[in-house]
Amino acid sequence: MTAAARTGAAEAGPRVTDHRGGVWSIAVPIPDNPLGHTLVHLLETGRGPVLVDTGWDDPDAWDTLTAGITACGFDVTDLHGVLITHHHPDHHGLSARVREASGAWIAMHAADAAVVRRTREAEPGRWLDHLIAKLAAAGAPDSHLAPLRRVRAKGPVRDLPGQRAALPDREIAPGALLDLPGRRLRAVWTPGHTPGHVCLHLEEEHPARRPGHGRLFSGDHLLPGISPHIGLYEDPDDATPADPLGDYLASLERVARLAPAEVLPAHQHAFTDAAGRVRELLAHHEERLAGLRALLAVPRTPWQLAEAMEWNRPWDRIPYASRTIAVAEAEAHLRRLVRLGLAEAVPEASGASGAAGASRAGAAGASGSEPVTYRAV
Fold this sequence. Notes:
The protein has helices at residues 3-7, 59-71, 89-92, 95-102, 110-121, 124-137, 142-153, 244-258, 274-295, 302-308, 320-339, 354-367; strands at residues 16-18, 23-29, 37-43, 50-52, 81-83, 105-108, 170-171, 185-189, 198-202, 215-219, 262-265, 343-345, 374-376. The chain is α/β, with parallel strands linked by helices. It folds into two domains: 3-115 and 162-280, Ribonuclease Z/Hydroxyacylglutathione hydrolase-like (Metallo-beta-lactamase, Chain A); 123-159 and 296-376, no CATH class. A hairpin with a 6-residue loop joins strand 3 (37-43) and strand 4. It is globular.
């Protein structure tokens, strides 16, 4: 094993870290993204190495991943399986290439596998219509909708991110002890960031004998210095209003009860004190919800609420695509406030409000009616 692989200090090669006990991480780059990289983890098993996530589908990312596997002492052809924490492209993007190169199986929670299947089978223009309708219902101005409408007016949309994503051939069942000889790895369903996000709990003594219960591969659910994006679960065929933020907060508490000795996330770096980090995130979202409720003293659409919220930069400096993501996060918080009885949709002449008004929001853009406005209760 090279010194670079042991220390993760390689200057000319992949950034690989030996976490001991047959666990490694490989920093796989994400092109043009401030996150920088995805930490793909390699877990040695009695049948060969297994990856936790794979990284973005990009030539440089593939070269880094394969070089990292070599630095861990294996070849990509040795891979036995791939465990996907969630369907996002910086985690699942290279899964198809890994399977082609090694014959490895790919496992994912059923809810995220359904997203992958739906995205692969969807007519891209229909997804664009859905996005335009959702943004219009949220109160997006014409200046934001016009570029999307121009793309749609040009005719059939040829491609959609995620359409080449690999279909998983195994399911990660919540609570299941995964079939990995020589290891005790248990699936923990943690919806919120996506409907089928999973963490993976390595129920083995920490190699440094740190206090706690094993190690947790946390994906994007629990990160040391970032609050993961919580938006909406998108499905053009299902208008049932979900509560992703409520799911996420409940999942945080579930993870805290595991009390792992160390957390191995998919971004940033490994860390300890999972319970402390969970408390920070719960407090952050409690403060965020209180701030949004205060903003709703004046009735606002989701877009207007997003404009008034605090972000890491002023609204007029947030890039176009990031504004769409920000509005989805505002809507997720709105749904939580509505579920808690702390906000409601402003009634129309028909008197509809609350959950009924939230249902109107899903169809307002498509029907051409006015966006739904919300207020504090």
